Automatic annotation (TrEMBL):
Residues 26-132 form the HemY N-terminal domain. It holds the Pfam family HemY_N. Keywords: Cell inner membrane, Cell membrane, Membrane, Porphyrin biosynthesis, Transmembrane, Transmembrane helix. It is a multi-pass membrane protein. Pathway: Porphyrin-containing compound metabolism; protoheme biosynthesis. It is found in: Cell inner membrane. This is Heme biosynthesis protein HemY. Its main location: membrane.
């Protein structure tokens, strides 16, 4: 637009000057080498204006041609990009459907024309993982690593595949490196949980659980399950390495809150029994039962191999007086009476327990106590009641 206005201004000035000096045009002599050219000033002005107009027109034609060429090139490029994106989207759908071969074919076909080839190669690696083709998986991961940026996406994909292949040691080493850089990354936290479980790193899992719960990556039910699994795992490690002494030392350093947790007490007692620490197990159990007569802990008394059950009997008799309607106390006491061959006392204890609730095991114990007292008819009736309970199940 500026050029056109400029030309019109020049033409206007030329016409004005030509009209003004029409009677005094003068002349212009141009000499170049052996050539000379003569013309009037008006002719020169018209020639200059015409030359400028021709140059402007040539510039317009050239730019228009280049613009058309560039538009054509862009049209083909955009067309390829759209097709690459469409194939990538279709590949993702194939991957979600479990069509690994179809997914690989779709995303790799036009990956070079995609504006984010990294995505195509990562999807292809996942497809190769699904097919179990490790060579292709590594090939696509290598191509993904050659792309600019998004190194975390590549690392996370590799680690997820390692975990799925149960390569926990390799995954763990890389996750520990990432954990410091991305402490709140939920995917990293979830993968750490899986590697800790796979490698049985119970202390690390125990430390991780609060973060998993805070990030709402596990439910309350799963949290408690993993928490007690970690406690058991740590106890097993200590017991295997240091025996009873190590378990007792571990117990002494536990927080008071955990020592009052029935599940933790049960786990410790079971580990002590496993390592022949029955006397030590009874002391811990006795102290726990003095705090509260937990129905979860009471049956453990019968699993402890005590040289003398009399102290345990006295403790349970005292608990029976405090809680006469607790069937678990009566049942446990009855089993200890059977060990001491106190048949009448055992009979009374089991009858008291069965009065509160039905139990196949207690009916069986009661029948045994009656048999030893030559009360065969009563023992037979009790046995039939036990059988009827089994039939109902």
């Amino acid at each position: 637009m500026f050029r056109i206005v400029f030309i019109f201004i020049v033409l206007g000035l030329g016409l004005f000057a030509g009209t003004l000096f029409s009677d005094q045009q003068g002349y212009v002599l141009i000499s170049f080498a052996n050539t000379t050219t003569e013309m009037s000033v008006t002719t020169l002005v018209i020639f200059v204006v015409a030359t400028l107009a021709a140059l402007f027109l040539l510039e317009f034609v050239i730019k228009r041609g280049l613009r058309a060429t560039n538009a054509t090139w862009n049209w083909f490029s955009v067309r390829k990009l759209k097709r690459a994106r469409r194939y990538a989207n279709e590949g993702i759908i194939k991957l979600l459907e479990g069509d690994w071969k179809g997914a690989e074919k779709k995303v790799t076909r036009w990956a070079n024309h995609h504006d984010m080839p990294l995505l195509c190669y990562l999807i292809a690696s996942e497809a190769a993982q699904g097919m179990g083709d490790n060579a292709k998986r590594e090939k696509y991961l290598a191509l993904a690593e050659q792309q600019d940026g998004f190194s975390l996406a590549v690392e996370m994909t590799k680690i997820r595949q390692m975990v799925r292949n149960q390569q926990y040691a390799d995954a763990h080493s890389q996750l520990e490196h990432l954990k410091g850089r991305y402490p709140n990354n939920t995917i990293i936290l979830n993968l750490l949980k899986k590697t800790y479980l796979g490698l049985e790193l119970w202390s690390a899992l125990d430390e991780l659980l609060p973060r998993l719960k805070k990030a709402k990556l596990i439910s309350d039910e799963e949290y408690h399950h993993l928490f007690y699994q970690a406690q058991l795992g740590k106890m097993k490690e200590v017991g295997a390495q240091q025996g009873v002494e190590g378990l007792l030392s571990y117990w002494s350093h536990l927080p008071k809150k955990l020592k009052q947790d029935d599940n933790v007490v049960q786990l410790m007692i079971e580990q002590l029994i496993l390592h022949n620490g029955d006397s030590e197990a009874y002391i811990i159990l006795r102290d726990a039962l003095k705090q509260t007569a937990s129905n979860k802990l009471l049956p453990l008394i019968t699993q402890i191999d005590l040289p003398d059950v009399h102290p345990a009997v006295l403790m349970l008799e005292g608990l029976t007086k405090k809680q006469p309607n607790n069937p678990e106390i009566s049942s446990t006491l009855g089993q200890l009476y059977l060990r001491e061959q106190k048949w009448p006392e055992a009979q009374k204890a089991f009858e008291n327990a069965l009065h509160q609730r039905a139990s196949i095991a207690d009916y069986s114990y009661l029948a045994d106590a009656l048999e030893h007292q030559n009360m065969k008819q009563a023992a037979g009736e009790v046995s039939r009641k036990a059988l009827s309970l089994i039939d109902k199940k």
